[in-house]
Amino acid sequence: MGYSILKGPRYKLHYICFACRKNFKQPNPKDVAERKGELSLLLNGFYFVKPKKEIPVDIIQYLQYEYFDKKVICPECGANMIKVPMSFETPPKKNIKEWKILQSFYEAKGYVTNELPDNKKMLIEVLENSLEWHISMLQNADDHKSYLEKLNDAKIRLKHEIEAIRNELNHLKI
């Protein structure tokens, strides 16, 4: 007696819109690729460790843009939406204070997490700790010059993150 795998839709991706203060779900890229007949290309290009066949660079670039780099637009207001974890609980629409904390955290860190600070004071503390950590990581990168090639990209990214955190801290302290 053989077993068959039941195939169903994959988990949808979760997004929030700061302008509307709402959350939305979008289809999984694998489901979209399957509908378009591009699933095998997507899997070979991005998910398999050892692709079954070589995929041309222009097709990889197309897949990257089509399934990963496109901006997700809010269906209600047209603003860009932010991807959040599936287990993220969106604050109520009327709770503007939580939405402002959420937006400040995103502006500084570039992502949203499930565990957000409860108030502005805690947010400032979290961002200051994060700033100290980023600065120490940047200094450590300077200490290990043997890994210079790999660290240059990380140093640039850390400098951008430090600047974003400082900007948001200055904005919050006004």
Euclidean distance between termini CA atoms: 70 Å
Spatial sequence of strands, sheet with the most strands:
2-1-3
- Domains counted in the coordinates: how many? 2
In percent terms, what proportion of residues is strand? 5-15%
**Helical/strand content category:** mainly alpha
Helix content: 40-55%
Low-confidence stretches: none
Give me the Rg, rounded: 20 Å
- Morphology call: flat
Write down how many β-strands occur, each being a DSSP E stretch of 2 or more residues.
3
Describe the sheet with the most strands.
3 strands, antiparallel
Task: Kindly summarize this structure in a few lines.
With 174 residues, the chain is mainly α. The protein has helices at residues 29-36, 39-47, 57-69, 96-109, 120-143, 148-173, and strands spanning 13-17, 22-26, 82-84.
What this model shows, in words?
The protein is mainly alpha-helical and 174 residues long. The protein has two domains: 79 residues, no CATH class; 83 residues, no CATH class. Helices cover 54% and strands 7% of the residues. It has a three-stranded antiparallel beta sheet, with no helix packed on it. A hairpin with a 4-residue loop joins strand 1 and strand 2. Helix 1 packs across helix 2, helix 4 packs antiparallel against helix 6 and helix 5 runs antiparallel to helix 6. It is flat.
Topology:
Elements: E1 13-17, E2 22-26, H1 29-36, H2 39-47, H3 57-69, E3 82-84, H4 96-109, H5 120-143, H6 148-173
Antiparallel strand pairs: 1-2, 1-3
Keywords:
6 helices; 2 domains; 3 strands; 174 residues; three-stranded antiparallel β-sheet; mainly alpha
